[in-house]
Design brief:
This protein is an all-alpha fold and 189 residues long. The protein has helices at 8-47, 62-74, 84-90, 93-98, 105-111, 125-143, 153-167, 169-178, 181-188. It is globular.
Length: 189
């Protein structure tokens, strides 16, 4: 109620605006997450094997291995052996963004993951990680029903579409075409 000057009507208006923009962001954020995990999985599968999560040659941190184990545990009702695609889908966005962090710069980034970001001529790891980590935090605000109405939503939308384009121009165009964010922002201002 603080943002609404303790006015219930104003508070409800802000709440409704937040619902509308959060709902509209679902499509571009989903496209970003799916494109990222599929792009990184493809790079790692090409460099190692499809089930690279269990390949001892992959220099994954203990933290990353714990996240993989947690994803596998969550797939308890899946038939064994677990399909790599099931693990890919179960791993959290933070896992994928974490693979782009500084700890992996001299190993899997320089050897393999940079290839996922060649659609626009290539990107520096630090720039990719910084952008995707910021969008991960924003995505979490949306997913946890927190206020986002006060954020620079048009810029965040453009940054999301641009980040997708770093991996796949076609997916970026599709996400932009299907995104309702610009229309929703135009209708609630």
């Amino acid at each position: 109620m603080a943002d609404s000057n303790n006015d219930l009507s104003n508070a409800l208006s802000l709440y409704e605006r937040n619902i509308k923009v959060s709902e509209a962001f679902y499509t571009p954020l989903q496209c970003l997450e799916v494109c990222l995990r599929n792009s990184l999985h493809r790079c790692m599968s090409n460099a190692y094997v499809e089930d690279w999560f269990h390949d001892n040659r992959v220099p994954l941190s203990n933290e990353s291995m714990t996240l993989i184990a947690q994803a596998e545990t969550a797939l308890v009702h899946e038939p064994l052996p677990l399909r790599p695609g099931s693990i890919v889908a179960e791993l959290k966005f933070g896992f994928w963004v974490g693979l782009l962090g500084p700890r992996y710069d001299s190993t899997i980034w320089r050897n393999h993951l940079y290839k996922a970001f060649l659609a626009r001529g290539g990107k520096k790891r630090g720039d990719v990680h910084s952008r995707l980590n910021a969008l991960r935090r924003f995505r979490n605000r949306v997913a946890h029903h927190e206020p986002i109405y006060h954020r620079p939503l048009a810029a965040l939308h453009q940054e999301t579409i641009e980040a997708i384009s770093w991996m796949c121009k076609d997916t970026s165009r599709w996400a932009e075409h299907h995104s309702r964010v610009p229309a929703v922002l135009g209708n609630i201002r």
